[in-house]
Amino acid sequence: MKSHQGITQDQETLEAVEAQLEELQLELEQQIEKISNDYDMIMENLEEVEIGASSGDITVHLLCLAWNPYKKDSNGFLTEA
User: Fold this and answer.
1) SS3 72
2) Between the N and C ends of the chain, which has fewer C-beta atoms within 10 Å?
3) What are the φ/ψ torsions at residue 68 (nearest 5 degrees)?
4) Mean pLDDT of the chain
5) Are residues 80 and 72 in contact, defined by beta-carbon separation less than 8 angstroms?
6) 3-class state of residue 45 by DSSP
């Protein structure tokens, strides 16, 4: 059985860990907000530009087809055939 002093020490440790957890959660929220704001500012500065291509601008060097057969089982999952 733990002594009264041991229980008190455990309670103090628990309180310290809970306080540290609160600080970390606050720091996490602040970092998430900062990243979100930075991302929003990046998105505001983007401008869509459409570039048209003519048939003379495109050269096909290699055209390939790959096929890996799968079948759907009775549960709706895909498995290799």
Assistant:
1) strand
2) N
3) -125, 100
4) 86
5) no
6) coil
Kindly report the pTM of this predicted structure. 0.44
Give the chain's count of helices (H) and strands (E).
1, 2
DSSP designation for 55: G
Grouping H, G, I as helix, E, B as strand and the rest as coil, residue 71 is strand
Q: Of how many residues is the chain composed?
A: 81
Residues in Cβ contact with 79 at an 8 Å cutoff, skipping those fewer than 6 apart: 70, 71, 72, 73
pLDDT in tens, 17-70: 999 999 999 999 999 999 888 877 777 777 888 888 787 878 889 999 988 888
Q: Is the dihedral of CA 45, 46, 47, 52 positive or negative?
A: positive
Query: Residue 44 CB: number of other CB atoms within 10 A?
Result: 8
Q: Give the Å distances, CA to CA, from 6 to 10, 12, 15, 76.
A: 6, 10, 14, 57
Rounded Cα–Cα distance for residues 56 and 64 (Å)? 21
